[in-house]
């Protein structure tokens, strides 16, 4: 993959327009909008796709996977209510765009990817060195990261068949998980709050994600 790591005035201008689009679609959290404005999304795509980087759409990144739509990234991030220094577990690193948006908000991010090729690609992605508050793992998100928990927040960026019980176990009491759960052809966004006993679930809009799959893929 060839990346262009140059952020021109043109890119900055396109990003401002993208922020306007995301705001018009209903995102209100100014910190989230500022993070979208500050993170150069074109860095996360092959340089052949520079022109689509600031269109509010998901885009293929190889291995049949996608970089999430900016609106979706903003939506999930807003629901997470990130506080500085929150420990956040992300399932589905993909391009690492969502992970960087979380890190830009001051979170300590632990992100897991099951596709070895995508995991390896991020090791070569020099821009990520600016974010020592993101730790990358190759593994199965259904298992989470028991030795690094408990987490304040969990974000799942693939379509989950159900709320994975291991991830609930790894949340702090009062912690929140934002997860798209299969509901026919689409997924309904849910926000799960862990209580002293059990969980509380809130239901939000429908989205379309690539599937959350079991196990690792070499
Ligand atoms: N957060 C990403 C979105 C990537 S799409 C971004 O900002 O670009 C979802 C990703 O989840 C894919 O890369 C897919 O390989 C990964 N994935 C699917 N099931 C998984 C699992 N069980 N554990 C870890 N990653 C998984």
From TrEMBL:
Catalytic activity: [protein]-L-isoaspartate + S-adenosyl-L-methionine = [protein]-L-isoaspartate alpha-methyl ester + S-adenosyl-L-homocysteine
EC number: 2.1.1.77
InterPro entries with a match to the protein in the record: PCMT (IPR000682), SAM-dependent_MTases_sf (IPR029063)
GO molecular function: protein-L-isoaspartate (D-aspartate) O-methyltransferase activity
Keyword Transport tagged: no
Highest rank taxon of the organism: Bacteria
Coiled coil spans: none
Signal peptide boundaries: none
Record's keyword terms, sorted: Cytoplasm, Methyltransferase, S-adenosyl-L-methionine, Transferase
Active site, per annotation: 68
Record SUPFAM superfamilies: S-adenosyl-L-methionine-dependent methyltransferases
Compartment(s) of residence: Cytoplasm
A single BP term in Gene Ontology: methylation
Annotated function: Catalyzes the methyl esterification of L-isoaspartyl residues in peptides and proteins that result from spontaneous decomposition of normal L-aspartyl and L-asparaginyl residues. It plays a role in the repair and/or degradation of damaged proteins.
Family as reported in the entry's similarity comment: Belongs to the methyltransferase superfamily. L-isoaspartyl/D-aspartyl protein methyltransferase family.
Name by which UniProt lists this protein: Protein-L-isoaspartate O-methyltransferase
Native source organism of the sequence: Niabella yanshanensis
